Amino acid sequence: MNEPLRKIAPATIGFDFDGVIADIGEAFIRLACSDHGYCSLKLEDIKSFQVEHCLDIDGESIEQIFDDILNDSIKTGLKPIPGAIETLTRISAISEVTIITARPELQPVREWLKFYCPPDTEQNITLIATGDHDDKERYIRQCNLSYFVDDRLGTCTQLAESGLSPLVYAQPWNINQHNLPSVADWDEISGLINFSGPMR
Fewest beta carbons within 10 Å, which of 49, 116, 127, 197? Predict the structure, then answer.
């Protein structure tokens, strides 16, 4: 964390999906090798959210990899980031969990959550697909959230400027590029949440 935060009521925090709950970086690197022959890439090489700006890989392959992941997240082996499911399960036991993704389609995310989450957890998740990275603020406000965890620095900067409290989920594509509050992993997120106090 860059600065201390007071404990967060569980009903007031929401989460991005890819790069926060689901390990899209690992999936991208793995599929780039197995499906497209780019086997020298490492996660640390992804220095920008726009991967075409930092990787020596053709644009058509990049587009195909992301299309494959977004269209069938289970078949492509998209994995949970360590600790994500466990923490979401703890939150879901006392509060609704809100996930707001920039993906255009909800169904692949619904199927993924059903596959990885316990039934009681999955049933207590509100899932919203905006189809636009820059259109999360209105949904965050509609859901009465104050805090939002996202790995995209542009989104977090926009939310901070609007008076909300973003937490940057640390990834190679945002490290050392901002002064916003950040979290390194789900243990840190769990430590910020007030599981014993009021929900709001």
Answer: 197
Annotation: CATH topology of 10-22+80-192:
Rossmann fold (3.40.50)
Q: CA 149, CA 118: separation in Å to the nearest integer?
A: 22
- Per-10-residue mean pLDDT of the chain, 200 residues long, equals 68 97 96 95 87 85 95 97 98 97 96 97 97 94 97 96 96 91 96 78
Domain ranges in the chain? 10-22+80-192, 24-71
